[in-house]
Amino acid sequence: MPLITRAARIAGMDPELEAFVPLLPHVDLNDPVAARRAFAAAAATAPVPETTDLAIEDRTVPADPDVPVRIYRQHDARGAIIWLHGGGWVMGDLDTEHPWAIRLALGSNAVVISVGCRLAPEDPFPAALDDAYAVLRWAAANAAELGLDPERIAVGGHSSGGNLAAAVALRARDEQGPPIRFQLLNQPALDDRQQTWSARNFTDTPWANREMIAAAWRNYLGAEPAAPYAAPARAADLSGLPPAYIASAEFCPDRDEDIEYALRLLQAGVPVELHQWAGTFHGSQAILSAEVSRRQIAELGEVLRRALAG
């Protein structure tokens, strides 16, 4: 397969998704302020589901600094997920993730604790990881007050949020932190080296291309060399981690690192469900007019429901 460029039609892309490619906003992560504005504007166009069946509460988790969270609870849900938004570690917040956190809560009957992590480059690694880990520890320590079962807490996220979730799982294992029931990793960014076949060949795929991903890693890592908690694919030992669901998008530079991470988890004895979504690109599940996107969103909820079953 030749290098994929945006100038050419991508053979095999889902036609409902392909129709939206010309409408995707341009985001330059070398200009974080402008990128955040463009990302927020795009996120504001996502339809917000009806929230009648949810209790939604904004809280602040005591840490250094404190971490804002938004908690979504349906009925008598006791299983929970610490949920990390995407945006290349540079973009996104509780508001941009709001429609997707609602969908996850409704689809899973889990308590979704959406985390407003600090953003790079102002706060590079390990700031966002420290925030996410602080929320995990807070949720476990305050499970009774929050109405949670401390044995049924998962971590998960989209893209860079999937990176943070995988890193939280590694850190909790290494530090004998709170038990994590499950990892829900949707198109996670796991490897800063960008040497897989998909990373080398998908240079100008829709939304996330090689340059965008390289800029995201530069912002996140700052001047520090990548360590396993920053890039989980660098971890030598994946044994003892929670069971995982990993979803990858076919036309995404991160595709092969996601698949390789799933294989390594399996080889380390960790149960994994891997779904490689044909015809999709990074983040395309947000295009809800496409049938494949609706199936992706529904599957995330159903997988989490099964994983947190009492």
Description:
This protein is of the alpha/beta class and 310 residues long. It contains ten helices and eight strands. The protein has one domain: 3-Layer(aba) Sandwich (Rossmann fold), CATH 3.40.50.1820. The protein has an eight-stranded mixed β-sheet with strand order 1-2-4-3-5-6-7-8, sandwiched between helices. Helix 3 (98-108) crosses helix 10 and helix 4 (127-141) crosses helix 6 (160-174). The termini are far apart. The relative contact order is 0.16. One of its GO terms (molecular function) is hydrolase activity. InterPro entries: AB_hydrolase_3, AB_hydrolase_fold, GDXG_lipolytic_enzyme. This is Alpha/beta hydrolase.
